[in-house]
Please model this.
Amino acid sequence: MRDDSDTIFAQATPPGRAAIAVIRISGSRAFAVPALFGCALPMPGRFQVAQLVDSDGGKLDEALILAMKGPKSSTGEDIVEIHAHGSMAVTAAIMRRLGEADGLRPAGPGEFTHRMFANGKIDLLGAEALADLIDAETDRQRLQAWRQRDGVLHRPVDGWREALVRLAAQLEAVIDFADEELPADIEARIHADTRALADAMGAVLDDDHEGERVRAGVTVSLVGPVNAGKSTLLNRLAGRDVAIVSSQAGTTRDIVSVRIDLDGVPVTLLDTAGLRDTDDVIEAEGVRRARNAAREADAALLVIDASTPGWRDELAQLRDLAGPSQAVLLTKRDRLDADVAAGVTAELTGITGAGCLVSLESDENGGDLEHVLDLLRGMVVPANRPETQSIITRARHRHALARAVEALRAADELDLGSAPELAAEEYRRAADSLGRLTGQVDVEELLDSIFSSFCIGK
Model:
């Protein structure tokens, strides 16, 4: 079990050969660390060039040492950083010497950030935002993480908690009238304020889960019969050959995945086995996995060969198989004459309202591929919604906020004249739910799961 009184150390830069390696030390014994290497402690807030020596007095490295005095440091504790050359031999020797010293131990994942949280340097939302920033793959994820770190959710939560305090104060007046007839204007005002607060929170929840999509990404399965062009499509979207393409039916047996950046939303595309009845045991397993992917993915792109006479029946079967978020892509337009292609496009629009007919084999100008990307955007990227609108980025946020709204709605249903104590309990429940968002209430069970997602040294 972690002891927060220990002095911890870790390499904050990636391991391996590099120009610079940064080793961080935080805790009550941090300021004693330079002496382990035969050098003096610099003034807090200052860098100092130092000659490091090993335990035998041999020259170890020439490094920069930085000292930061708690509580005015990132963790709220005394901190020393050693900026050494990024030689694997140098960093190994420094880490070994630190490990041999009394009162020092290696940090666990996210332990520096955990101490920031414990010492009031960051709240729970800020810690989550920092983890999201580290994991960001796209610009949109990066910007969303910084917005969360800068308090885009924290600020309204603080405002809602203040509104709850005001409601509680009004409720005290109701309780004071327990033996008298409650003035109508007081009860009406409390109900109106309660509804307004619940509506404000509800509006934030009505965001089509955009923040979670941007943060975690979306999985889209490419589903359809054999030889419809799913693997060709995957290769075109990936910009490289990741799936084997062959005219032989049943070439794709297992799921092949590719991750792309679609307008800042990470999208994992799953190329699946063509759906058909088969006696081949391995192919049958691939078909089973394809059906599961169609049902379980966040969205499904139904890929069908428009040059086959049975494409309408195949479409009907696939639409029943896939989940609610789906789009239709008819392929092999190059095998149809112009009039037939126009008729198929009109018919597809009438059936689905969204879909397109493309050629994946001869698309010199990239126009057809852009049509495919538009289909994916329609499923993945919320339409007509500013990127800055969604402020919920995790299921935990959504659950806590929904519980707060539920409590406020319950309070609004109560007769305050006869049951003010019950209303007070609902307001308390709403306040506790908001407190869990920022880490002010009952968050111990969350801490390990959140901070364990950080790398060592963060």
The domain at 217-380 is CATH 3.40.50.300 (Rossmann fold).
